[in-house]
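Kindly inspect the following:
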Amino acid sequence: CSTRHELGSIILTTNLDFDKWPDVFGDARMTEALIDRLTHRADIHVMNGESYRFRQTLELRKRVAKEN
Protein backbone atom coordinates (compact mmCIF):
# COMPACT_ATOMS: atom_id res chain seq x y z
CA CYS A 1 0.00 0.00 0.00
CA SER A 2 1.28 3.44 -0.88
CA THR A 3 2.33 5.59 2.07
CA ARG A 4 0.51 8.53 0.46
CA HIS A 5 -2.80 6.73 -0.09
CA GLU A 6 -5.60 8.30 1.98
CA LEU A 7 -3.15 10.44 3.97
CA GLY A 8 -3.17 13.63 1.93
CA SER A 9 -4.90 15.53 -0.80
CA ILE A 10 -4.09 15.50 -4.50
CA ILE A 11 -5.39 18.03 -6.99
CA LEU A 12 -5.34 16.79 -10.55
CA THR A 13 -6.58 18.72 -13.56
CA THR A 14 -6.98 17.50 -17.12
CA ASN A 15 -8.83 18.37 -20.27
CA LEU A 16 -9.23 14.69 -21.18
CA ASP A 17 -12.18 12.52 -20.27
CA PHE A 18 -11.29 9.30 -18.45
CA ASP A 19 -12.11 7.22 -21.54
CA LYS A 20 -9.22 8.94 -23.37
CA TRP A 21 -6.61 8.21 -20.67
CA PRO A 22 -5.63 4.75 -22.05
CA ASP A 23 -4.58 6.49 -25.28
CA VAL A 24 -2.12 8.58 -23.26
CA PHE A 25 -0.80 5.89 -20.90
CA GLY A 26 -0.87 3.07 -23.45
CA ASP A 27 -2.03 0.28 -21.13
CA ALA A 28 -5.78 0.06 -20.57
CA ARG A 29 -5.59 -2.20 -17.49
CA MET A 30 -2.99 -0.07 -15.72
CA THR A 31 -4.91 3.08 -16.61
CA GLU A 32 -8.07 1.56 -15.17
CA ALA A 33 -6.21 0.81 -11.93
CA LEU A 34 -4.84 4.35 -11.83
CA ILE A 35 -8.28 5.89 -12.36
CA ASP A 36 -9.74 3.55 -9.74
CA ARG A 37 -7.15 4.66 -7.17
CA LEU A 38 -7.46 8.36 -8.02
CA THR A 39 -11.25 8.43 -7.98
CA HIS A 40 -11.75 6.40 -4.80
CA ARG A 41 -13.27 8.87 -2.32
CA ALA A 42 -12.71 11.70 -4.80
CA ASP A 43 -14.64 14.86 -5.44
CA ILE A 44 -14.80 15.16 -9.22
CA HIS A 45 -15.74 18.49 -10.74
CA VAL A 46 -16.49 18.47 -14.47
CA MET A 47 -16.47 21.89 -16.04
CA ASN A 48 -17.86 22.21 -19.54
CA GLY A 49 -17.75 25.85 -20.42
CA GLU A 50 -16.11 28.36 -22.66
CA SER A 51 -12.48 29.00 -21.86
CA TYR A 52 -11.89 32.45 -20.40
CA ARG A 53 -8.31 32.51 -21.72
CA PHE A 54 -9.39 31.44 -25.20
CA ARG A 55 -11.98 34.22 -25.29
CA GLN A 56 -9.30 36.75 -24.25
CA THR A 57 -7.01 35.51 -27.03
CA LEU A 58 -9.75 35.95 -29.64
CA GLU A 59 -10.48 39.48 -28.41
CA LEU A 60 -6.78 40.37 -28.53
CA ARG A 61 -6.49 39.06 -32.08
CA LYS A 62 -9.48 41.17 -33.15
CA ARG A 63 -7.92 44.31 -31.65
CA VAL A 64 -4.56 43.65 -33.31
CA ALA A 65 -6.26 43.03 -36.67
CA LYS A 66 -8.15 46.35 -36.40
CA GLU A 67 -4.92 48.21 -35.60
CA ASN A 68 -3.19 46.78 -38.68
